Records
---
Amino acid sequence: MDKVTTVIKPSAGWRSIDFKELIRYRDLLWFLTVRGIKAKYAQSVLGVSWAVIQPLFSTLVFTVVFGNLAKIDSNGVSYFLFSFCALVPWTFFSATLTDSANSLVANASMISKVYFPRMVLPLSSILSKGVDFIIALLLLIVFLISYRFVPSWQVVFLPWIILVLLMTSLGIGMLLSAMAVQYRDIKHAMTFGVQLLMYAAPVVYPTSNVPEPYQQWYVFNPMVGVIESFRSVFLGTIAFPYEWLAWGTLTSSVLFVLGLFYFRKMERVFADVA
Amino acid sequence: MNVIEVKGLGKKYRIGKAEKKSETLVGSIVNGLKQPLENLRKIRSLTRLNDEEDIVWALRDVSFDVKEGEVLGIIGHNGAGKSTLLKILSRITEPSVGEVQIKGRVAALLEVGTGFHPELTGRENVYMNGTILGMRKKEIDRKLDEIVAFSGVEKFLDTPVKFYSSGMRVRLGFSVAAHLEPEILIIDEVLAVGDAEFQRKCLGKMQDVSNNQGRTVLFVSHNMGAVETLCHKAILINRGTLEGIGQTDEIIKQYLTKEIKYFRKKRESSELNFFRSIVLLNHELEETDIFSHTEKIGLEVEIQLAEWSNDLELALSVKNSVQRRIFTKNIQLQEFTQGEGVFCFRVFFEPGYLMAGEYTFMVYINKPRVKAFDLQESICPFTIVDTGSVFSKYGSKMGDIFPPDTEIKLVGIND
């Protein structure tokens, strides 16, 4: 008879992804994602509408505070669209960050009782937030149509932009979730950390407002490339920022690989410290 | 063919050290400021197991083989390392040393209903739980009707699980697990759930899995009756090391004799009221664990009381081999003493009640409706041998106790 042989012994060093195993557990990934979505909107009157309400209200507040009162430059388009366009990827980023960082701690009881590839937990957090992202993106398109904006031809790069967004979220998410199992400080730092991070990205202001000498460092933040590309494609605020997006791709790849390997290295002690 | 080979397996954990406390105000302020650093060192050390001083081996140098189709019982006291062994075998945690080779698909049941989410419906949770245990969606689609029928919650399948009673939740969880079809099944004490009827159903299912489907099963339990009926072979684990491996009945005997020894010597306990020693005696005051059915069963119990109350009672129960209580004797302690101290009681049970078979005692000091002190389950195992009563030819198949005296009258003959 042909049987799989599993060898269990102390492991050492760094490990990459076990794709074969992830594929075998794809149904689990699917149901965890569905669970994440359903549980989030269960017993709420507005249900999935919350996915739209959150970025929409933030945009309204930003428009009043930063657009009308502080009169921050918005590259010549309405401040409302300017900030909403940034909040669509940003809300996804901050939500996945918080959720995936918590994913291991929140499922500690599962980790200590059953074996499954641990990576499905942060992965499913990202996937379930993906639904909110798509809904917000559709709303953005509705706004664009009503304001009669036509996206530039660089809209074909959208998959590239989203890939950078995904790698950044997943990379930091895996890094933080693996750390949060052992150091619960991460959980406390998360809530305000994400808020602070928002000011390190061009959400409420354009990158052109950042003084020249600092800009070369600023663009290492992968969210700069993502957000500015979004605005360039949909609103035509600036010429498509190839260079910024390239730097973002580099840092997001580094973050992704770093997060991945750290996660895989720490994975073996999750059940002991969770 | 060996499907599981365990070689020199060991797992170490770190135990916490007592914290330094300062007695001066300045000292405590300094300590408070140092606290984050101290915390960092402590949390980091959870995953660094290099210095030897505060390390404990939960499992050390354990080796054994399991053959295909074998049902292996794993027994031992609480904290002996059984669960650690299961966690390593099911890949939840890694061993510190040693190696295990497993041939075939493994499913481990360390808990019933893992991954259940209260907001999701029963149906959704069946899929959730099933996939966590390694089933494919298609497999669950195929077995859904069977799973639901086995659990008996058909009517509530589309109700969120948070509205289920705890019994329903457990039944649904077990049904999913019972329909796994791995080549190797690892089970930890899951039979200790649900009501009596459901437990019987589970035991039946387990027997079916091992006998008829020829699968390999590893089974951890404190229920010696279940281990005895289900397992061909057993291993005994004590303080992290393998103490015995062999025929189930011999290993169980080895385990139970250990427990007698444990209670013969004077013990200390952190409980306020506790048993110092418990010994079985025959009518000549000799220590023994075998009685004939015509012999008195004596129990010498030494208790230490540090928290007196007038309603304290000493409860002595006799349980049969599947841990069912047969009878309980309550002794009001205020009839003998009015306060704290160390007391030694000798209690004799009259003969003529118990049929031939294996029994154990369950003892505890009870403050009725408030608290049970030092509950000791399954201690002082003893055997009743039937040396020629009317019932001896029936063995213990008749039940556990002799029938009471009965009045029988012939009230008529119909032809």
Note: Chain B has a mean pLDDT of 82.
---
Amino acid sequence: MTNFKNCIRQVQQLNLLCKMINFLRGFLLILLFLSFGKLISAYLPIPFPASIIGLILLFIALSTSLVKVEWITMSGNFILKYMALLFIPIGVGLLNYFDLIISHWLVIVFSLLFTTLFIMFLVGHFYQYLNKKEES
Amino acid sequence: MFLYLALPLTILVFFACKYLYSVKPWAILNPVLLSILFLILLHYLLGLDYSQYQKGAYPLTALLEPAVVALALPLYLQLHLIKEKLNSILLACLLSVLVAFCCAFYVMPLLGADLITSASLAAQSVTTPIAMEISKSLQGIVSLTAAMVIFAGIIGASVGLGFLKLVGVKNRQAQGIAIGCASHALGTAKVLEVDTVAGAFSSVALILCAILSALLMPLLYAFLF
């Protein structure tokens, strides 16, 4: 019986190890595509975010089955699930810009309310119109 | 000392706020907003040094770039949805990017915004890491952009669906696209709670808007200013 339990524990440990390797592989793949992006971005004549180039490259690699989805599913989902956390340090950086925010408060409030709702209104109706045209 | 506390403190505050939001899911109690406010308050009350905090929390900031690359995953998984309506989605996202750009650079100066402020506002509808990259390439203030993005997300998540119904956007897909374009990931999370189809369209729109903004805004800026 103890032998059996030992065996189960070993399998569980192996399973954990497999998951960790799987996670690491996905994360390293994502970093690899990010560095491709950085390389290309360094040679582009216009400033363009390296991370977006990495995104597009990874998407192409996934579509052409160069990279299998299951290789990056675990780490990709993990990093996306806690993506919100990554914004916090930059948000805290706002405390350096209090003067700026106070002096521009009208623009900031107006931009938030007007632009956000205006985009929603326009895009929503535009897509609805395109959809109806396509159906008819 | 604070250098080493910054990272665990940020994670702790975030998960505490997340828990609070799960108990009381009000839009105003958004975990990101609440964490930022709490940490700013802490800096003020205890007289902490932000440069120390920034250094200590750097691992989180550094992970933003891989997070953007990881967005390829949902884009790939929703490929069948995009293919079917690709033209309409692309046109809608293009409209959204142009409207956001014009609002920031042509409407906001009427209210007294200078070029730096306009550049910081231009990417407010795009998901944060990409918005910050765009803001950087337009010479805007990255921190201001990050805050604008979060506020824009909270507006979309809280009043977005109600507003769209009020103005007559009844189509589920259109609602998803509109919120994805205007309120990125925060809005998308809210839409996903209500309707899966709208949620899928919202995430496609948020990714396409981000890519189109990152492609077009620096170009438009270089041509026009």
Note: Chain A is about 85% helix and 0% strand.
---
Amino acid sequence: MSRPEGFPKIAPVGLCGMAIRFSASLSEQANRAALAFRAGLEKAGWEGVEEVSTSLTSAFVRFDPLRLSHDGLEAQLRDMLDARDWYGADLPGGRKHFRIPCVLGTELGPQFGDAAAEAGLSEAQAREELCAARPRVLTIGFAPGQPYTGELPAHWDIPRLKELTPKVPQGALVVAIRQLIIFANDTPTGWRHIGQTAFRCFCPEADEPFALRPGDEISLRAIDAEELHAIRARDRTGLGGAEIEVIE
Amino acid sequence: MSARYLHVLEAGPSMTVQDAGRAGYLGEGLSRSGAADALALAEGAALLRQGAELATVEMAGMGGAFRPSHDMRIALSGAPMRADVDGARLTWNASHLLPAGAVLRIGAAEAGTYGYLHLGGGVATPSVLGSRAAHLAAGVGGALKVGDELPVGDETSDAVGLTLDPAPRFTGGEVRVTESMQTALFSGETLSRFESTEFTRDARANRMGVRMAFDGAPFAAEGQLAILSEVIVPGDIQMTGDGTPFVLLPECQTTGGYPRIGTVIPPDMPRVAQAGPGAALRFRFISQQEGVDALRRHRDALAALPRGVRALLRDPAQMSDLLSYQLIDGAVSAHDPDPKGDHE
């Protein structure tokens, strides 16, 4: 069964928002459902709806309750939920694959060895697995353009640290709970800092300020610190030397 | 006509350009930003008889010193701060003419947190993704600094010498909250203790959020660490790992895994953002319908602001100073002068 018991659920988010939740835990189907439902909301273009977005397994509607009542919106959402099997939805179209140069380990990824050990791997095995993986962007959020990608194989289900690392830099690669994140900004985190990229998730001045979209895939190309430095020196786009191909 | 600028001669630690913010990028992880006190934007616009979409200077806790390249209309709103032009005191919550070359000084907030300096024609810095609002956390724009020359837009009005009575919001008070996605994770006992607790704004506060200090046990949800990251909106009251509430403001993150006990309704957000150090706040849950009714009254009040503006009558003792700067030379166009109401 791909549809978890009791879901989908509609829940208020403040006075001017409603979340449509497809699961209480991350799954491929619930993530696809959220993305497809958001696309459906965009297409529907309901009067009074001001913005739509997704998180890992939920879609979100921001609306003006003076133009569209809570009851009215909830009824429209229920009708749309009943119209099809959202858990069986396809991924969004126009997806891309970003192959992103990354220094894994060293002082630029100081918790790499620790993370590999948590996953039950040697550093060489961990490096090989991470470079072979092609995790998908499950959602963009928390900070501008910041991707939550997954899922890695089950042995990467390593917990977040209780003690926060006070600051990891912009472009840092971090891992926890079968997901990889490239950080948009310098940030404190409980995720393990395992690598460093020159990738900028958000370039306000660029034609396309947000490079990644949910559904895109990323992979890592292992480089050394010298190459990272060279990429930074010549990068004018903020893509950090990433090679981009269209998937479909 | 040469370009109009406002020169920044001195800058408080956190002065930024703000407008209503850039909506529509939640799905890209970019929160809206915009003025921490949206009501102050509308008040400034009413005092200058111009649109509330124009950008303004937001000053957190402390103002700065400014010199205009040309005669400029200004209005002051939000947290009252001591302001003068070349030593002549200016009334807060009012519009004035600032002569070319004069020095406007704005000091520390006397109550509340965010003061606003509005300019006739608005701040005309380049727009990024549809807004001029700085978003410090996202790296859009930055704090204003000494030596900056802020471009100012073309004038559309000549109204100055106007004042209004601001809605009270600078000294704490009651804040209305509606239920949110995770309210049910908190026990009834915790929710009632939350409503009966008096909170004060902690020093750990910025445009991302305000930490609420209080005496008593932490406010814990059930299964707090296991919550999947979900969407966050400004006004959400996030309960961090140690059971302390943070009310999220316009530069908040867009998703988060800490449980939200409830969400402050938009009309009461200025009260949270403006609460000064030590000001006491209490939260009260209301129904969704009560929230919608409050939002309707709030929108009506915003729409009525321009009608509530009246001529600023001056203390004769200050007149000579003011006359020397021709501050009362501008056209006064209040609809409804009300001498009885002229107080600060």
Note: Residues 320-344 of chain B have pLDDT under 50 and may be disordered.
---
Amino acid sequence: MLELKNLTVHYGHKRVVHDVDLTLAPGQTLGLAGESGSGKSTLAMSVLRLLPKTARVDGEILLDGEDVRTMAWGRLRAVRWASASVVFQGAMHSLNPVHRVGDQIAEPIRLHGTTGSVADLLDQVELPGDKARAYPHELSGGQKQRVMIAMALACGPRLVIADEPTTALDVVVQAQVLAVLQRLVAEQDLGLLMISHDLSVLAETCDDLAVMQAGEIVERGRTREVIANPRHPHTAALTAAFPVIGDPAHRWADPRPTPPPLLQVRDLRVNYGRTRAVDGVDLTVGHGEIVALVGQSGSGKTTLARTIMGLRTPSSGRVIFDGSEVPRGGRALKAVRRQVQLVLQDPSSALNPRHRVFDAVAEALRVHGLREDEEALVTAAVERAELRPASLYLDALPHELSGGQQQRVVIAGALVLGPRLLVADEPVASLDASVRGEIVALLLRLRTELGLASLIITHDLGLAWQIADRVAVMHQGKIVEQGSVEEVLLTPSHDYTRALVRAVPRV
Amino acid sequence: MSVVSRPGVARLLSHRAGVAGAAVLVAAGVLAALAPLFISDETLDVTRVTAAAWQGPGADHWLGTDHAGRSVALLMAQGAGTSLLVGLSAAVLAVGIGTLVGVLSGHFGGWLAGALLRVTDFFLVLPALVLAIALSTVLPRGLGTIVLAIGLTSWPSTARMVRAQTLAIEARPFVERARALGGGHAHVIGRHVLPSVVPLVLVNTTLAVASAIVAESTLAFLGLGDPTRISWGALLHQAQLHGAVPQRAWWYLLPPGLAIVAVVLAFTLVGRALEAVVTPKR
């Protein structure tokens, strides 16, 4: 049905896709894995000629035997959606906010003059028919993504291209969306080309797997075999980045006795107007202990972290650091902040684009008036974060660094004051798979070398399994379960934890 | 840390209109700076001039003479300084007030922002010219009054813009990181907000100078300027007062008007070019 022969795509002089051959038969599901910049999205978009004008495409793209590259404009318009359609990444941006979703699903049907009913399509993706009258903002992320799938199926295509269809979704919702997609592919005998950076998602849905690196397909085969015995080192790196919960080989933290408490949160409540974001939380982090706080987005875990940092004022309850209560402001709070440091999710926005690495790392020293040995301290912190030699990086601006290097700069900026507790909000969520492992290893090494305790906030149970000593599960502002990693993740006692663990895609 | 880096200068040079504007401004600046050196007081003293009144342009007087026989060309050169000086200092005053109000209201929020914004709204809805006229009538005559009148009435738009930019910067995670590191208000404003606001402020200043020059001309034309100083607007006022129109003395009316248009246009062009250079792509 789809056949790519010697496909090469250039943007100017930059080659993004190099000499790719792929075939896809009806009913076949093919996963395309790769990191950002590997050319996987470019490859997928070339199938429907959706690339920008600056792209130069060589080779053949045969869709049902016809070359998409040489199709007349009218023919191409007919082929788009009727033969092949796309589920775009990020449903919140791909839906028009001012139109009802029913009208948006009906748009391709109207344009192509095909038969089909919005109610049927909504039914197929397991949404009630009255949602057709809803606007995008009235739907949840998972519902919007299902609307996107319904839209892709509107003209009865035989090939569906799904570009990171579940990336922004929580695990539980992700599992639901993947289930819908899988069922539809099986029922309607569709060809599915699914793109993702997440091997576990592809393992869940696709029979075949192709791994891309720097524009080339480095490995392909049956999904189970590729993941079980990766032959290419890049595939191996990708597999290692998605830890299997319960697998001792993926458990990097060594067991240790419970240390004396460093940070204690007692019956903490935080209100936003009438909404209670954090509702009576008790949490303890010991000296040198790594605690993972897991939960879905909206569960209040980020608010809890901000409150611990003193960036929000709690409505009631106490935060005790090293035996004394964290003050609400003034010099005393500033003193506590020397001991507790924050690492944010997206390093590219956590660094001021105008500040060089040296200034970004030295910022903490300057804030606290530690002018002496600035250069030595900054160099030491940068090297601790494994940017060696530091002199190569100190003068760089953030945009000149890769995502992993940027996150190391953020970590160096936190280390420079010699803190005792690191609060990390999704520290690896925006990083590529291969870099992710390095940052996780760095956090563990810092614990071993400096006795640094961490509170890691994440929606990723795999990360918790990899590095945490203890796990606390947060749901609707409350901690519903906490205990050692093995206890919570292998024998969960609360219903919500069980749902979370069950929803994690298995490789 | 330089605001406009080296590639920024190169990009600025690629804006032809901006470069042309800058050339006009340099010429006007040089003229204004040199005028007092080669023009002696006598040549512009009504009691000592020898030439006849209302002479058309010629070899002796490039742009003819005025109602008292003074050379219009020399008056123009002398007036350039006043116009540019008033324009620049009024713009700096307006942008200064605007930046201060914008950053403070954007950073602190709460009741302070509420109060500052109401004051901004007050100045925004009042017709600036009417207010400037009222101010320059009440205050003693002089250059300072003109600057004050223009500066005090033209800051609200800058304040609004700076506040918007401040709010955008404060929402960025690196400001939260700075707070978590222990940075106080001074640190966040000084290290993160101001450096991001300054390029916009610079652009705004060049655009504000243009409107300040027009405002100065307007006030001078209405006879509210500093009577002891010659400016382009004051020349227009004099021309109108002494009947240049019935005399058909186009050489007395057109040059100051065209000079104002040229300089204002030049400032606008430079401002637009700067804006294109400093506005972040992301």
Note: Residues 260-503 of chain A form a domain with the Rossmann fold fold (CATH 3.40.50.300).
